[in-house]
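Recall the central idea of this unit: under ordinary conditions, the amino acid sequence of a chain determines the structure it adopts. In this exercise we apply that idea directly, starting from the sequence alone.
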Amino acid sequence: MYQKKLEDDIRCPLEYGINIFGGKWNSRIICVLADMGTLRYSKIRKEMGNITDAVLTGSLKELITEGIVDRKSYDQIPPRVEYSLTEKGMSVVPILQSICKWSGLFYKENTDETMAHCKKCDYHS
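Accordingly, the structure predicted from this sequence is:
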């Protein structure tokens, strides 16, 4: 498993926030779980679309480590694991919704293309 050579040098709260949900996949995982509730891995993978298993697994582990996502495994055959947002994870959702709304407004200024309405974060232009 990949391990960073250097620890993150986070010097302000904004860097911490961007480190957690500023990447391509983490914010999308948070939005999927916020929209759909508790999900099994396969359902998250299906909702994410073109994410690889390695990236999804790594992103989920990172979000679990940060206390954003909860992983609950059930002792049964076949094994069952479910993922859901923690209280800390739910507190991020309004921030992501604001970013989505802002992006929807200003993305249009820089291009003739329009973005599809985001159903995961409930953005409507």
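Strands lie at 39-40, 69-74, 80-85.
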